[in-house]
Amino acid sequence: MSAVQKQTASSSSDSDPRYANVDERKRKRMISNRESARRSRARKQKLMEDFMKEADQLKSENNHLEEIINTRSQYYVQVESDNNVLRAQAMELTERLASLNSVLHLCQEVNGYSLDIPEIPDPLLKPWQLPFPGQPIMASADLLL
């Protein structure tokens, strides 16, 4: 469009009341669209901030859970180690008891004394049977933490 045509188009739209309403509607629509876009950007920004907060919270919770898992794993390794030591000690004591019982059997045969020699229970043959059923097993609160 040439400059002359633009001037006549704008001058005719200024003087014509029909075009005045069109221009006013365009202006209002532009303002409305800008406001809508601003609100949309603000919503998107708020949503992004909320997601970032949630991600930070989840990372923090994940780190906390990893610390708990590491602590429990270390505790498990320690308990397993202690259990292995106790098993070895139980085997050693069972062997010593068997040795002492054989000495008692020998004394019984040689001297003719009547001795009441109990059977040696093998805890490894029946691991779920308690060696002393009359004694309760005490649980520690540390195991639950």
Q: Notable features of this structure?
A:
145 residues; BZIP domain-containing protein; single chain; mainly alpha; disordered N terminus; bZIP_sf
Question: Can you describe what's shown?
Answer:
With 145 residues, this protein is mainly α. It is 74% helix and 0% strand. The protein is built from two helices and no strands. The protein has helices at residues 3-15, 17-111. Mean pLDDT is 79; it is low at 1-13.
The low-confidence parts are 1-13
Summarize the amount of helix as a percent range. Answer: over 70%
Spatial shape: rod-shaped
Distance between the termini: 82 Å
- Name the beta content range: under 5%
Number of helices: 2
Radius of gyration, in Å, reads 45 Å
Q: Overall mean pLDDT score? A: 79
Largest sheet: none
Number of beta-strand segments: 0
- Class from helix and strand fractions: mainly alpha
In terms of quaternary structure, the protein is: single chain
Q: What is the string of helix and strand elements?
A: HH
Pfam family, one: bZIP_1
GO cellular component, one term: nucleus
Biased composition (Basic and acidic residues): 15-25
Protein name: BZIP domain-containing protein
Give me the secondary-structure topology.
Elements: H1 3-15, H2 17-111
Pfam family, one: bZIP_1
Protein name: BZIP domain-containing protein
Region (Disordered): 1-45
